[in-house]
Amino acid sequence: MSKFWSSMVKRTEPYVPGEQVIQQDIVKLNTNENPYPPSPKVVEAIRVEMERNLQLYPSPTADDLRKTIGRQYGLAAEEVFVGNGSDEVLAFSFMAFFEPGQPIRFPDVTYSFYPVYAKLFDIPYEEVALNTDFTLPVDKFFRSEGGVILPNPNAPTSLYAELDLIEEIVKNNPDRVVIIDEAYIDFASRSAAEMIHQYDNLLVVQTTSKSRSLAGLRVGFAMGSPSLIEALVRIKDSFNSYTLDRLALVGAQAAFEDEAYFNETTAKIIATREQVTVELGQLGFTVLPSQANFVFARHERISAESLYDELKKEGILVRYFNKPGIDNYVRITIGTDKRMARLFETLKEILTT
Ligand code: PMP
């Protein structure tokens, strides 16, 4: 703390991201990245752009990318906003739609960045307790004073709520914005984006970090009615005109255009996830039915904390949250079949000693 700090800095409690270790032989299953590299078409688009255009500012409106993303969901470019990772899109959304003095609601077990933004922007919040099986108590989100934000599938639980439940929440907050954070939706089923033309208070946020293998490029996006998108653009243009650089713009666009690659890698991850769920069960784990690119699991005999430590000693990183209610679970990102085989070998050793 310093006398030079603004009150905004003083009240921050920054988010702590999962460990990023650069070590060749480490099996990194802790930050829900895609184990497969991006499409070769992404790499090529970035190479060409780098050679030709890096001396020029990027497009401040990102129209081409917004059109391309919109096409996927039957939306116009005016219904799409793009930003530097969905984290930035979420931060802008807090500024654009939530007010100091009006408490917003989000689940008590959820993405731990939400309380960080709330504190930064001085927005009060209520943490709604999930049901004991981690499902959403839908009606507890009705008629919120300030708005609602929740991930679907939820993180770190991996559970997906069917669209009719999400629709109930949107319907029962007609005068407040409901943000559905769909970082993991491509590993689940239907996106709430299909309801955007029905509800002007619905904002759906997604990312290229997970299903499109672009965590390192930082491209997230939001979809909603033109007036919600305009609010986000007003915030961005009061902050930084060029939040996405030229490489990010062309790389993300190429990722959306290579649908075959996206379908193939996503299907592989889902297949591995189903296999991993069965095998963990055989080793005595309880695994929540995941619709994401990670699983949330606990073991009847060994604590999550010692499991995390033991795996780390063997060069395998998973995520452990030291938080009441979930401190007996580890979150394991789905890797390649080869990396998951290494996880299972190590788990078997740990569990027999
Ligand atoms: N929302 C959720 C639920 C997440 O788990 C993550 C990844 N940490 C994000 C948003 C942010 O992803 P990114 O900024 O890479 O788009």
Detailed description of the structure:
The structure is a single chain. This protein has 353 residues and is of the alpha/beta class. It folds into 2 domains: 9-37 and 260-351, Aspartate Aminotransferase, domain 1; 40-258, Type I PLP-dependent aspartate aminotransferase-like (Major domain) (Aspartate Aminotransferase, domain 2, 3-Layer(aba) Sandwich), CATH 3.40.640.10. It is built from 11 helices and 13 strands. The strands form 4 sheets. A 5-stranded mixed beta sheet has the order 2-8-7-6-5, sandwiched between helices. The protein has a 4-stranded antiparallel beta sheet with strand order 9-10-13-12. A two-stranded parallel ribbon has the order 1-11. Strand 3, helix 5 and strand 4 (125-128) form a beta-alpha-beta unit. Helix 2 packs antiparallel against helix 8 (246-257) and helix 4 crosses helix 7. The longest helix is centred in the last third of the chain and has 24 residues, at 259-282. The mean pLDDT is 96. The structure holds 4'-deoxy-4'-aminopyridoxal-5'-phosphate. 4'-deoxy-4'-aminopyridoxal-5'-phosphate (PMP) binds at residues 85-87, 111, 151, 155, 181, 183, 207, 209, 215, 220.
